[in-house]
């Protein structure tokens, strides 16, 4: 058994101690064998790809190793990350035996396209989480990805969190696309569907007796998101910030704020396509990370400075916070009440709700409960993905 | 068809596109296997230009479909000429035809408005180059529609049946990776990532476009651009920005790269206010030296 790039152990045929072209009787079989090797290494290597590879083997490209590499890479790779892995696999299979590259286990999160730089902001791993958190040993799940999706962010090791980030970005983008809507043909609507109308009226000699309409596309209302970045939220705020960043694909009108001791608007930073550059910029411009929490005072600031421009009665507000407030609970409940007068719905996402036996007994949360419409958890990737049904209604 | 990799490299160079061996091999393969080519990469690295230059090299029309969110079949494939259809229905009112005959006439080719994808497969003279640009901007429904075209080179129109390509077009898709494309789409294509060029290649590219510019100036400019690409910027300059920048410097009369020239032309190179402020705070002299 040998271990290949994805970490999986590969069972090879008895005649091979490792996959190599010299183990095959002819070129055709070697090409097919390479296809099998690619499949075990988790490349997209189906029948069509193998047929394409055999066609390539019938061209002049087979005479030069580098051209064969380029050609097979174009067939078997579907992304930049796979291109980075492909060369080692190719070298191992097609090189002379004495030059065979030593196989090493590669972790998937090393092949990310964006340069992984650590933002200077203090996040993840600092601060303390209180209460009993869900133990990762209790998480049921057949494989690593499933386990990590259910793991509390506060419990992740650094290497796991990098891997989970990759999974998370992919899944949030997919969720954003599922949330899109398109025009449908309907009996009611405000736009004429000419194609369907003509079809239906041919029998009437061209007189437009039956009209078919297109239903109006549902307008996306504004989503306003508040993220608590105080010290107690350290272990969650990076993931939640990336979640907010990925939501912008669907919500064109997303307004975002971070708060701890003061409130900072970060909507403009979300316009940038590169999340790492966004974090870098924010880390320089925003100075309230990992400090104390004055939730009520921050919401008062919002009500006074931004609410009249941003809230229009149809907006949905999402608050991502553990509710651990150092200010007066009356300040928080009053501020939320004022906010509620201008919003359709207030949703509070609390990472602590992921704990076994959690009850919102902290004074901040107790004060907020009377004003919020929905209280859900936001402690793991799966809990964030479950918000999709909520976001559809926005 | 361009018969060999060397022919491809030379043909592209004639139209000022510097091609490396890998991309030349893949273009050769694209012709041999008849598969579409999916080009991904950062903005401004020359993805779209590949299709245009390929069309010029093959002396064939380039048919371009620019993708955007909300792109649908009516804009991409075909639409019926509703006004003519309505008039025709009226004219045929008293004609002695059955309903089926009338319907067959109304949904005939004379009333069909061909959009880029249909034009690409109904080209009569020779196989065109079909560029589906920024396919990542289109939504998943449109991607699903493309699958039939990319694998069978045919399009199904409910009223008319299946239309197969007379000459299979050479299809080039580009993507900026703003979202992940479906596996079904990617597996129907040959894949290539176009990265930023290395120093020598980028100097060659600039000199291809502007052979009149002093090579020393070109090298200074490219050196600065490469340094900027190592810096964490919101919008990293691509090759297109390098060309814009050098054109800007030359237009203002600079024969060598000087700090004041760089400050004046920073807008040609950097497309974000935050990036411009960042570079100015670092100091352009520091970058040039």
Which descriptors apply to this entry?
heterodimer; A: alpha/beta; 6-stranded mixed beta sheet; 3-stranded antiparallel beta sheet; 40% helix; disordered N terminus; B: 289 residues; alpha/beta
Report on the structure:
- The complex is a heterodimer of chains A (394) and B (289).
- Chain A is built from 15 helices and 11 strands.
- Chain A has helices at 27-40, 47-57, 65-76, 80-94, 144-150, 158-178, 194-201, 234-247, 275-285, 295-305, 307-310, 329-340, 363-369, 381-385, 388-392, and strands spanning 2-3, 9-10, 185-186, 191-192, 213-214, 223-228, 254-259, 263-265, 315-320, 343-350, 374-377.
- In chain A, the strands form 3 sheets. Chain A has a 6-stranded mixed sheet. In chain A, strands 3-5-4 form a 3-stranded antiparallel sheet.
- Chain A is flat, with a radius of gyration of 27 Å.
- Residues 1-16, 98-142 and 181-187 of chain A have low confidence and may be disordered.
- In chain B, the strands form 3 sheets. A 5-stranded parallel sheet of chain B has the order 2-5-8-1-9. In chain B, strands 3-4 form a two-stranded antiparallel ribbon. Chain B has a two-stranded antiparallel ribbon with strand order 6-7.
- In chain B, a hairpin with a 3-residue loop joins strand 6 and strand 7.
- The radius of gyration of chain B is 24 Å and the shape is elongated.
- Chain B starts with a helix and ends with a helix.
- The mean pLDDT of chain B is 89.
